[in-house]
Structure formats: structure tokens, C-alpha cells
Amino acid sequence: MNKIDQLKEFLKATPKDSFLQHALALEYIKAEDEESAKQLFENILINDSGYVGSYYHLGKLLERINQNQAAINVYQTGMKEAKLAKDNHSYNELQAALEDLEE
């Protein structure tokens, strides 16, 4: 059983687990299934807006598929959530990604 199948099995027991969804989205990126990854990241952020790590990965994915304005919006929203969570590391990562994109 590959990682994608394993994660899907785990998600059957806990379908709203943001960590498992995030891990599955990252596996989809490795498999070059950007649409599935995008849907998972968006689902995470709809249901768990405080899951800050997903903003960075969704933003980078959006950049790769040439949706730069959407990526900017994701980074900005993620920065607000990181600030609320007092997560300075994630805030700085998102800010750097935003600045790189806006250059």
C-alpha cells in the first residue's frame, strides 16, 4: 500500500483530521496531482482556518499553476491567522513567500 492509500485509510476513521489531510495533500503534490492537493488544502482551511501550515503550501501550489493573485490572497490570509496564533515562524515564512511573489 502506498502512502496515498495509507493516508486515505486513516482518513476513513477521522475524515476531518487536518494533519492527515495536509499530509495527503503533500503526497498528492509529490504525485503531481495538483488539483487533488488544492482541494484538500482548501478544505482544510475552510474547516480549520487556524491550521497555518496549509496556507504556505496552498500558496506555493497556486504559484506553480499560475494563479498568482489567489496565492497572494492565501499568503495574506495565512499571515493574519499566523499572527492570531502567535506563530512567528509561519508568519515570517508566509511574508517571505508573499514578498518573493510580489517582486
3D architecture notes:
The structure is a single chain. The protein is mainly α and 103 residues long. The chain has one domain: Tetratricopeptide repeat domain (Serine Threonine Protein Phosphatase 5, Tetratricopeptide repeat, Alpha Horseshoe), CATH 1.25.40. It is built from six helices and no strands. The longest helix is centred in the C-terminal third of the chain and has 17 residues. The radius of gyration is 14 Å and the shape is globular.
- Roughly how many Å apart are the termini? 43 Å
| Helix proportion | over 70%
CATH homology-level superfamily: Tetratricopeptide repeat domain
Would you tell me which CATH topology applies?
Serine Threonine Protein Phosphatase 5, Tetratricopeptide repeat
Count of discrete structural domains = 1
Strand content: under 5%
Shape: globular
Query: From the alpha-carbon coordinates, what is the Rg to the nearest angstrom?
Result: 14 Å
CATH architecture descriptor: Alpha Horseshoe
Assign the structural class, choosing from mainly alpha, mainly beta, alpha/beta, alpha+beta, or little secondary structure: mainly alpha
Total number of helices: 6
Indicate the low-confidence ranges by residue numbers.
none
- Count the E strands: 0
Q: What is the residue-averaged pLDDT?
A: 96
CATH class: Mainly Alpha
